[in-house]
Design goal:
heterodimer, A: 108 residues, mainly beta, five-stranded mixed β-sheet, four-stranded antiparallel β-sheet, B: 113 residues, seven-stranded mixed β-sheet, 11 strands, 0% helix, globular
Chain lengths: 108, 113
């Protein structure tokens, strides 16, 4: 079963930062948090992952709280092409169990 | 990352028949996974396919219905057997690279009439 909970949907204005929260209160000390997105039933696309330090790459930033019980994915300047379902995943025995994800709607 | 292809990309099949879906990756990988995504739903893990061993199925999925082959480190197949309309879904394979990150194929969209 998925070890994460996310809001069902969020709206964001184009050009603004999109902040997507995720709760993973049962995460273990050596488990990573992964973020993927799925655009219109394509295969999920890897975005970023982290353990306890904040991470940044060309797509997004990942902020993990000090107690590691929650995290936030930040898309710094959302575009219409970022409209997708975003999944936050904690690996469970080397497997990914997907939750329902957050549908991000980027609006003009 | 990895380049993953799936064949067919989509198919329409009659109930009672079987379809074999192929997954090809451009590098050798130990762990491959098969998922199902029913219409409007999230992804559900079907099984883990490691080369040289039997596939490991998740609760609710059985080998008779979803036989899997993993003949080498770059290829796997998933068969959907004795199909019914409830099997209409997108089927996706993924691979895990040395970075402990999974990369997904484009999916196979199956419609069963």
């Amino acid at each position: 079963d998925a070890k994460t909970t996310q809001p069902t949907s969020m709206d964001c204005a184009e050009g603004r930062a999109a902040n997507l929260p995720c709760n993973h209160s049962t995460i273990s000390g050596n488990e990573y948090v992964y973020w993927y997105r799925q655009i219109h039933s394509q295969g999920p696309q890897y975005i970023i992952h982290g353990l306890k330090n904040n991470e940044t790459n060309e797509m997004a930033s990942l902020i993990i709280t000090e107690d590691r019980k929650s995290s936030t994915l930040i898309l710094p300047h959302a575009t219409l092409r970022d409209t997708a379902v975003y999944y936050c995943i904690v690996k469970d025995f080397n497997k990914f169990y997907f939750g329902s994800g957050t549908k991000l709607n980027v609006k003009p | 990352s990895a380049v993953i292809s799936q064949k067919p990309s989509r198919d329409i099949c009659q109930r009672g028949t079987s379809l074999t879906i192929q997954c090809q990756v451009d590098s050798q990988v130990t762990m491959m996974f098969w998922y199902r995504q029913q219409p409007g739903q999230s992804l559900t893990l079907i099984a883990t396919a490691n080369q040289g061993s039997e596939a490991t199925y998740e609760s609710g999925f059985v080998i008779d219905k979803f036989p899997i082959s993993r003949p080498n480190l770059t290829f796997s197949t998933l068969t959907v057997s004795n199909m019914s309309p409830e099997d209409s879904s997108i089927y996706l394979c993924s691979v895990e690279l040395f970075t402990d990150t999974q990369y997904f194929g484009p999916g196979t969209r199956l419609t069963v009439l």
